[in-house]
Every structure is written in structure tokens, then in C-alpha cells.
Write a structure and sequence with these properties.
Layout lengths: L12 H4 L8 H6 L1 H18 L6 H26 L4 H29 L3 H6 L13 H17 L4 H4 L2 H14 L3 H16 L7 H16 L5 H11 L5 H12 L10 H15 L2 H4 L3
Length: 286
């Protein structure tokens, strides 16, 4: 069986977070260890050179790479080894959780440095209002991703699940600031959050469909992540096998080279779609 998808998993980030410009698509496809080595090297280089004068962009990169590594390698691998080696899957999840916690700390430190009342804003809708700018969008996004990853890797530990509203608050604010950021990544994230949020919509499908359509429009249909996000979060939940196969087959037959900036992410999406189709008996009961 698959690892249970806990609240706020933001599975689309497994796709969009792995934009590794230094690695050729064929290498990414066949050698996942390259993902691990590439990201760990990036992380190590930044951490070795961190000092008081390091730029905010450096900290953003560090947060991003940590989230990418934890999602794209550790949690993805945990999913795949779960059936054969449960203990190894748990070890991978726990390691990912520690890295997500580090990313959260980086994000909070950076945003609190910029806005002294950020913690209060994040903790409650009644908190101080902050005039965010488009420069904040990636920080809000990656912090949301880090919280989502910590929740997923904690296996729905209440200590982490209570942070789920923060994921929505961060994503919704980022959409308010810069809705089409990164080819609609925020909309794809909201497809997943729509299903797991503590105050779910009365019509989950209708809400998720809205974000799905917006994500496709933002990327001109060239990003595979909305298809996979909808398939994993809506089609499986509703046990709509026909729709699931249609969406994952769309991913598998996409021209992944239409947009060079999305090519590697789409390759990762295709690999996951192929793997998910191999697990149909676990995902669908009829």
C-alpha cells in the first residue's frame, strides 16, 4: 500500500520543486541519486559559506534547496520503498521532517527580519496586517511548502497538523500578491490544500477545478503538475479511476519540451504518473 497522504502534503511540489538546471533530463530520469547529490552539494556549499553578510537571496536558495531535497528525494523515495521496507520509509520520513524544520526556521527568520509582526500575522487572521510585496512571494511559497512537508513527514502528528492553517494563509497571501507566479505553482498548491484544509469547501471538486483551470491558464497548459495534483487529490479521493487515468495519461503523453523552464519538472511528473499507474490496485478499490 502507499504511505497515507496526511494533511497538507502539497504533493505537486514533488514536481515543481525539482527544477534542476544543472542536470540533463536523461540523467534525472534514470538516476535519482543525481537529484540527491546535486541538491546536497548546493546545500553544503551555501551552509559552508554562510555568514552575517550573506544576502537574503542566499537564505532563500538554502530554504528552497532543503525543501526540494526533502520532497523530491526523501519523501518520494519513502513512498516507493514503503511496501518492501517500512522501516526504511519511516527513517526517510523522519530525516525529511528534520530538514523541513530547518527550512521553516530559515523562512521564519527571514520574514520576521523583514516584518517584525510576521509571526503574529501568520498565527491568526486577526493578527497585524502586513503590506507584502512581490519580492516576498517565493518566501511565502517555500515556507508554505516547508510546513506542508513537515506535516506530511510527521505522519499527521497533531503537533504539526495544528500548523495546517498557516499553509493556506501563506498560499492565499502569495496568490493575492502575485497570482501567476512560477507558471501557476500557487494554484497547483491550492488544489492539494483544498482537500486537506481544516475548513474545507462545501464542493471540493468545484473549488479544486477552479484552481486547476487557473493553473493551466498560467502555464498555457505546459506544466504537468496541475494534472497530477488533481489526479492525486480529487480523482483518488472520489475513486474516479477513469478520470485519474485520463489525467495521468495526459501527463505521460505531454510534449515535455514545450517550455524549457518546465522540462525537468515535467519529466519528474511523468515518472511519478507512471509509478502511480503501477499502483492502481492500491489506489482504487474497484
Amino acid at each position: 500500500m502507499l504511505i497515507q497522504k496526511s494533511s497538507g502534503n502539497l504533493l505537486h511540489l514533488i514536481i515543481v520543486a525539482l527544477f534542476l538546471t544543472a542536470c540533463a533530463p536523461t540523467i534525472i530520469r534514470y538516476y535519482p541519486r543525481v537529484i540527491e547529490k546535486s541538491l546536497t552539494k548546493k546545500i553544503q556549499i551555501i551552509e559552508v559559506n554562510l555568514n552575517e553578510s550573506s544576502s537574503k537571496e542566499t537564505y532563500l536558495d538554502l530554504m528552497k534547496y532543503k525543501v526540494q531535497y526533502a520532497y523530491g528525494y526523501l519523501l518520494e523515495r519513502a513512498d516507493r520503498v514503503y511496501d518492501d521496507d517500512y522501516s526504511e520509509a519511516i527513517i526517510l520520513q523522519d530525516k525529511a521532517k528534520l530538514i523541513f524544520k530547518e527550512a521553516i526556521e530559515i523562512g521564519l527568520n527571514q520574514l520576521n527580519t523583514r516584518y517584525s509582526s510576521f509571526n503574529q500575522w501568520l498565527a491568526s487572521e486577526k493578527g497585524d496586517q502586513i503590506s507584502f510585496t512581490q519580492k516576498d512571494t517565493p518566501y511565502l511559497y517555500w515556507l508554505a511548502a516547508a510546513y506542508g512537508g513537515a506535516i506530511k513527514s510527521s505522519r499527521a502528528n497533531p503537533k504539526w497538523v495544528i500548523h495546517l492553517p498557516k499553509v493556506g494563509r501563506l498560499l492565499e497571501k502569495a496568490i493575492e500578491i502575485e497570482p501567476n507566479w512560477n507558471y501557476g505553482s500557487l494554484y497547483s498548491a491550492m488544489i492539494s490544500f483544498t482537500v486537506s484544509r481544516p475548513d474545507p469547501s462545501i464542493n471540493l471538486r468545484k473549488t479544486a477545478q477552479k484552481y486547476f483551470d487557473l493553473a493551466l491558464k498560467a502555464s498555457d497548459g505546459e506544466d504537468a503538475s496541475p494534472y497530477l495534483a488533481f489526479a492525486e487529490n480529487i480523482s483518488i479521493k472520489e475513486q474516479n479511476k477513469t478520470e485519474f487515468l485520463h489525467l495521468t495519461n495526459t501527463v505521460l503523453t505531454m510534449d515535455i519540451g514545450q517550455n524549457p523552464e518546465l522540462t525537468l519538472g515535467n519529466i519528474i511528473a511523468q515518472e511519478r504518473a507512471r509509478w502511480l499507474q503501477s499502483k492502481l490496485e492500491d489506489l482504487f478499490y474497484e
